[in-house]
Amino acid sequence: MKNPPRIDQFVAGFSVGDATSNAVLLMRDRLRALGFSSTVYAPSAYVMPAIRSECRSLEAYDGKPHDIVLHHFGLWSDVTDFFLRVPARKVLVYHNITPADYFRGYDDTVADQLANSAGQLPRVLAACEAIWADSPFNADEIQSLSDKPVQVFALPYAPAINETEPDERTLRRLQGPVTTLLSVGRMAPNKRLEELIEAFAIYRRTYDPFSRLVFVGSDRSAPRYVTRLRLLAHEWNVPNIAFEGFVWPEALRAYYRAADLYLSASDHEGYCLPLLEAMCEEVPVIAKRTGGTPFAMNDAGVLYEHLSATELAALMARVLNDPALGNAVRASQQRRVREIMERDLTAELSALLAPLIDGAPASETPSVVRAQNPT
Questions:
Q1: Are both 33 and 80 inside the same structural domain?
Q2: What is the domain extent for residue 199?
Q3: Mean of the per-residue pLDDT values of the chain
Q4: Running DSSP on this structure, what letter comes out for residue 47?
């Protein structure tokens, strides 16, 4: 290729264990394998020191009109303003904006940021030559805002990125004759963690008194919501609920290793990578059928909808105690893990970029590329 463009990526934050940060690194490596110069750029103030060497300061970006920049977008920030000003050809990689109403009453400042982000999205879409979304759910959401085609590029994930050994200290702490129910992800109101607490209260009382519910994930998104969860657990007199907060990848692997069942009651997910992480760690998954979750799971695990707390508790007990169902769930998840392992991310990126590299207008490409799995 004569004079290939640089293909760089902009992110608002860059941290260890973050799904988008991991995806960005995978994409950078595949872009380099295709022969492109590719660098990750992020504001220095929002880069975790442990991975600072993997990116450069946003202010150092000096792309030219011939170059291409991918902006991973889930919330309006100064990075978006910078993205709109650079002369390079622009591609939006959309990761979903949580609806503002979930945060009203918990953190109105965050709710206003989310509402502003959604309101500004049409302006961002208009500036882009190509638009990618990491699930059909996200693609449908923004397709209504633009006459440009939106292409589906499933969130990149390679289990090999988490091949570090589980933290031994965490494993020892979690050992014991107890059934462990696990939920991973930032603790935010759209996750509906109160539904898991209520179902767990019934499960523990009715089926298994030697059980615990473990929440792993940052509690900084909505501190008032986390306080509400703690008060609910106290009010309902539900013991054995652990709020573990953010953990490093080594510790996260230990939590997955100790888990007997993974749970998600989220009402709104753009994709939900922890579902796949749990499957790769051979943990049976039960998740609410919502948003991008069915796309991520692709007929693996157990999807549910419209269940009461009592019904969800019964489902949890059955998956854990019915050998035939448990084996079927594990077999479906093993198939899904094979799909993840066999995904040709390099080929997908090459196909998505071909119209841009060849100079064809983005409108000539298919409106949807189901790059990883049909839903």
A1: yes
A2: 166-340
A3: 92
A4: B
Count of the separate structural domains present in the chain = 2
* Residue closest to 213 by CA, chosen among 188, 230, 189: 230
d(CA 78, CA 149): 26
Where are any strands of DSSP class E within 2-85? Answer: 7-10, 40-42, 56-57, 68-73
Residue 367 pLDDT > 90: no
- The residue written with tokens 């059909």 in the block is 136
Q: Would you state the structure tokens that stand for residue 282, as one six-digit string?
A: 């051979």
pLDDT exceeds cutoff 50 at 363: no
Picking from 189, 191, 193, 183, the residue whose alpha carbon sits closest to that of residue 215 is 183
- Whose CA is closest to 265, among 219, 322, 230, 311? 311
pLDDT value for 16: 85
What would the pLDDT profile of 39-72 be if each residue is shown by its tens digit?
999 999 999 998 899 999 999 999 999 999 999 9
Question: d(Cα 292, Cα 303) in Å, to the nearest integer?
Answer: 12
Claim to verify: residue 145 and residue 170 sit in the same structural domain: no
- Is residue 162 a contact partner of residue 240, using CB atoms and an 8 Å limit? no
Average pLDDT for 324-329: 97
Q: Is residue 1 situated within a structural domain?
A: no
d(CA 221, CA 219): 6
User: Taking the mean position of all CA atoms in its chain, how far away is CA 291?
Assistant: 12
Could you read off the pLDDT of 128-137 as tens digits, one per residue?
999 999 999 9
| 324 located within any domain | yes
Q: Note whether residue 372 is domain-resident.
A: no
